[in-house]
From TrEMBL:
Coiled coil: none annotated. This is Fibronectin type-III domain-containing protein. It comes from marine metagenome. Residues 217-299 form the Fibronectin type-III domain. Pfam families: CarboxypepD_reg. InterPro entries: CarboxyPept-like_regulatory, FN3_dom, FN3_sf, Ig-like_fold.
Length: 992
């Protein structure tokens, strides 16, 4: 190579020596094409030595003569645009071949553009503006080794330095022509070189040469042996993406991304040689590792597995295996035990199937291939304790549960030594239905394990189904309330049939149907009765409701009974039943009595004011009537506001009555009402009633009745025979300063308390006195309306009324002063009801009191004390309390120390009786004895004739009247009224 280079240099030198001389001429201009004058033009060799100097003329021309073609620099200096500063530019001149060299005629335009050079050749080429061809290089050479790379290139004569580029970036600028460094494997590196001289001229970049450094070869190779499988492992190689495996010189694994490799399925008892090479990310393979040898083990065959039947255990056996030191047993893929022998047994639940595998274990503790999979189980036993019981269309089979059985097969045995599959069940019992009544059936059972394999059969068991129901009627009876053996008009009874089931099976939803054998509509009979279950050998009673119409006739009536049930059994022959009916006796409707009432509590008819006439419609005949119609023909002498002229009543039994209220108004002093009464048989009777205005008539509670069979009735009322205190109520003037409370109870919710007769009447009459005699309006009464606090006060009513702080009475008193301007109020209270002594203290019995619960009763002591607290109100002038108490146990007061508590001087109490006594009835006057005397005293107790009844006058009258009247009442006991209070001059009633 050195010889060739020397020869070429000598050849070029000889050519230059022999070259002809040439001249360099040219014109230098600026960018406006104007000549640059007096520019210094110097010819330099490559060592920058001056060879010739010239300057341009006024036309910018210059000439350098008699030079040999060679490598030169042409240096141009001239006065630049800035005065006093020279601009210098260097142009490169290169020789051509000897035959092609010729003189140069240059056309130079200065200044030269930035990043541009001017290179000319004596061969006539140029200018070249981007490089100097003399400085062009051949591509560099690359050398690689593990994780290392080296770059080298030619060293040329004209180059002063070289620039090396790595992946496009400059990494070295030096005069040496070599570069090397460590690099990561798996990454490509590309290089270019460019030559430079000392004056800014450069050659072109070489072409790009690329390569990468391989990784280190794998190290620490190891081999592990498992039967005929060899496993290689090695250390991680930096930069390796995968590995290639070579066995006996051939690649057997490629792209392995771990540091291990398993080579299975090799020949047993043979040597193998392995090597490993690393692959980087550019798939460049490293050198192979050192070789390593691996030897496979000798072959140990798998055992052949089978089993032996046993009633309680699973017994496995297998053959002897050469080279086997022991055997591993697996059950259902899980290791069980290692044994030295060729058999294995274990106890398992019957019917539980398991699959086993045996593996031989050699001297290296390596397992052979698995044996054949052998599945076995302990067979389940035949069911025991089988019983068969006959039922209704059913046979019940029961047996003992079998260990290991998940279900059971039931077999029917229609013949001896013959079984037919019937059904599979999951529990150790079954009810087989439906089966025909009275037939025998036989069955056997087998257990079924989880795999569907069955056990041996149980013993056959036989039984008979119960016989069918058998209906019969043992007895028939007519049940009717009168007990006369007949169905009377409007009488409700029952037709009772005693039904018997003589079969072994019950009958369900037994439907009995009763059909009449005649077509009369006068008797109504239920047609169907259903007995839910008719138990064998038991009598059930079926009762059909029967009712005769009011118009039923006397006759014999027959019915036919049939029976069916869900099981399809019927009564073999219909059962015939016969009864008799009796016709009704006729009714007789009359108006037995009448009464007059109005909103004022009086019993007369004012002119042109509406009142209520109450007529008592009574049946005095011997028969019932289903209804009655009362008609009032139109009349010019009276009117019935809001009344349609006709009213229909419910049915009325013999002796019973029905009261009818009719609004009435008249202007006539006397007038007649013609009542038309029609019964259900359309029989109409007329009764005329003559009435007068302002005449006193009966109170509705005073109306009377007639006896059944009475011939006639006279509706004229003798007012002289009326109760005196009810009819002789004095009239007083309006009293805005009064307030009255009426509390009366006749009927109690707890049936243990007796009815307090006349109590309602007492309250009504007292109300009439407060309105008429005392001149009080409804708003001055409590309750304000008769229908309020109906039936008497409850415990809450008493508490809410007399609460001295928030009660209704206090609220009314305050409102009277606030809204009506009433400064002083006189309060009158009348209480009529039962009382009870409890542990030596008296209690009032409210309407809703419980006989056995004392907390439901109202303490008289509390009642009086609440009034005393309330009386401190300045607007209360007086409180007068009339206590008309009938004690249920007056003797319990004996020995009691209780007395009325001290009260405010405004309060006076007039009690119907003293302690240990009780208020009693006055049947003749239909009032309590105390109230009758009290009312009598109000109407005639004014002893001094001043038309003012004072408390002292009233008390004296009552004190005298009660004992006097008591003597004429049979079966009475002592009763002495008592006054508690000192204000005897208190005005009770002012009739002035």
């Amino acid at each position: 190579m050195k010889v060739r280079t020397t020869i070429c240099a000598l050849f070029i030198l000889l050519a230059i020596i022999k070259a002809e001389e040439v001249a360099i001429t040219g014109v230098i201009q600026d960018t406006t094409n104007a000549p640059i004058k007096k520019a210094a033009v110097t010819l330099l060799n490559l060592r920058n030595a001056v060879l010739a100097e010239e300057s341009t003329n006024r036309k910018g021309e210059f000439t350098i003569k008699d030079i040999e073609p060679d490598y030169y620099y042409l240096l141009v200096k001239y006065e630049g645009q800035v005065p006093g500063e020279k601009e210098t530019y260097r142009i490169k001149l290169n020789p051509g071949s000897m035959k092609k060299n010729k003189s140069l005629d240059l056309q130079l335009m200065l200044p030269i553009e930035k990043n541009t050079v001017l290179v000319y050749s004596f061969a006539g080429t140029g200018p070249i503006t981007d490089h100097d061809p003399v400085l062009n290089l051949n591509p560099p050479a690359l050398e690689t080794s593990p994780e290392h790379i080296a770059v080298s290139w030619e060293d040329i004569q004209h180059a002063a330095s070289y620039v090396l580029f790595e992946n496009g970036a400059e990494i070295q600028r030096d005069s040496v022509n070599r570069y090397e460094r460590d690099v990561p494997s798996g990454k490509e590196f590309c290089y270019e070189v460019q030559a430079l001289d000392d004056f800014g001229f450069s050659g072109l970049r070489t072409g790009m040469i690329c390569n990468s450094a391989p990784t280190q070869k794998p190290r620490d190779i190891q081999v592990k042996v498992a039967k005929n499988t060899l496993t290689l492992t090695w250390s991680v190689v930096h930069g390796a993406e995968s590995y290639n495996i070579y066995r006996d010189g051939e690649r057997v694994g490629a792209g392995i991304d771990t540091t291990s490799f398993t080579d299975p399925g090799l020949e047993y008892n043979r040597d193998y040689i392995y090597a490993v090479a690393a692959m980087d990310s550019l798939e460049k393979e490293s050198k192979k590792s050192i070789e390593i040898k691996g030897t496979t083990h000798e072959f140990v065959p798998a055992p052949i597995l089978s089993s032996v039947k046993d009633e309680t255990e699973l017994v496995l056996i297998w053959n002897e295996v050469e080279l086997a030191k022991s055997f591993n047993i697996y059950r259902d893929d899980e290791f069980v035990v290692n044994v030295q022998s060729t058999s294995f047994s274990e106890t398992r639940p019957p019917g539980e199937k398991h699959c086993y595998v045996a593996k031989a274990v050699d001297q290296y503790n390596e397992e052979s291939d698995p044996s054949n999979t052998h599945c076995a189980k302990v067979e389940i036993k035949a069911p025991t304790g089988v019983t068969a019981d006959g039922g209704v269309n059913t046979i019940y089979l029961n047996w003992n549960a079998v260990v290991g059985a998940v279900s059971y097969n039931v077999y029917q045995a229609p013949k001896e030594d013959s079984l037919v599959y019937f059904q599979n069940v999951n529990i150790p019992h079954i009810a087989i239905d439906p089966l025909p009544y009275g037939e025998e059936f036989c069955y056997a059972i087998s257990g079924v394990d989880p795999d569907g394999d069955r056990s041996e059969y149980s013993q056959v068991r036989c039984t008979t189904v119960l016989t069918a129901p058998d209906f019969s009627i043992h007895k028939f009876a007519l049940i009717e309330p009168s007990g006369n053996g007949y169905v009377d008009p409007r009488e409700k009874g029952k037709l009772q049939f005693a039904v018997h089931n003589s079969g072994q099976s019950p009958a369900h939803s037994v439907e009995l149907t009763l059909s009449p054998l005649d077509t009369t509509g006068e008797v109504f009979v239920a047609t169907t009765v259903v007995i839910d279950t008719l138990i064998p050998d038991k009598i059930e009673f079926a009762e059909f409701d029967i009712e005769a119409a009011l118009t039923v006739e006397t006759a014999e009536r027959s019915y036919e009974l049939t029976m069916t049930c869900n099981e399809g059994i019927i009564l073999e022959e219909p059962y015939k039943a016969t009864i008799e009916t009796k016709e009704a006796k006729p009714a007789k409707l009359i108006i037995a009595d009448f009464a007059i009432s109005n909103d004022f509590g009086t019993h007369y008819i004012p002119e042109s004011e509406e009142v209520l006439i109450t007529i008592r419609l009574q049946n005095i005949g011997e028969g019932n009537t289903e209804y009655a119609v009362v008609d009032i023909p139109d009349s010019a002498t009276f009117s019935t506001p809001g009344f349609a002229g006709s009213i229909t009543t419910p049915g009325i039994a013999p002796g019973d009555y029905f009261d009818v209220e009719i609004p009435l108004m008249s202007k006539e002093q006397s007038f007649i009402i013609d009542f038309q009464v029609t019964d259900y048989l359309d029989v109409t009777t007329s009764q005329k009633l003559e009435l007068d205005l302002l005449k006193h008539y009966l109170h509705p509670e005073d109306m009377t009745t007639l006896s059944v069979g009475a011939d006639s009735v006279d509706l004229a009322q003798d007012t002289d025979s009326a109760i005196d205190v009810d009819s002789n109520i004095p009239f007083g003037r309006k009293n805005p300063q009064g307030m009255a409370i009426i509390l009366s109870t006749e009927h109690y919710e707890d049936g243990n308390y007796p009815r307090l007769e006349y109590a309602d009447r007492d309250g009504i009459t007292m109300r009439e006195y407060f309105q008429s005699a005392f001149g009080l309006s409804d708003y001055q009464l409590l309750p304000s309306k008769p229908w309020q606090m109906e039936g008497g006060p409850t415990l809450n009513d008493l508490i809410n009324t007399f609460d001295p702080h928030q009660g209704d009475l206090r609220r009314r008193i305050v409102n009277s002063k606030k809204y009506s301007g009433v400064e002083e109020i006189d309060i009158l209270i009348y209480y009529r009801g039962l009382g009870e002594w409890i542990e030596g203290e008296p209690y009032l019995v409210p309407k809703d009191a419980k006989f056995t619960r004392d907390v439901t009763k109202f303490s008289l002591d509390r009642f009086v004390k609440d009034l005393s607290i309330l009386s401190v109100l300045s607007s209360i002038q007086s409180v007068t309390l009339f206590l008309d108490i009938t004690f249920t146990n007056p003797k319990e007061a004996a020995g009691s120390l209780w007395e009325f508590p001290e009260v405010n001087e405004k309060i006076c109490i007039l009690s119907a009786s003293s302690k240990g006594e009780s208020s009693q009835l006055y049947p003749l006057k239909k009032h309590s004895l105390f109230l009758y005397s009290l009312l009598k005293g109000l109407s005639s107790g004014d002893e001094d004739g001043d038309a003012v009844v004072e408390l002292g006058e009233l008390t004296d009258f009552v004190y005298k009247s009660v004992p006097q009247e008591l003597r004429g009442i049979p079966n009475t006991s002592r009763q002495n009224p008592a006054l508690y209070g000192l204000d005897l001059k208190r005005t009770i009633l002012n009739l002035r």
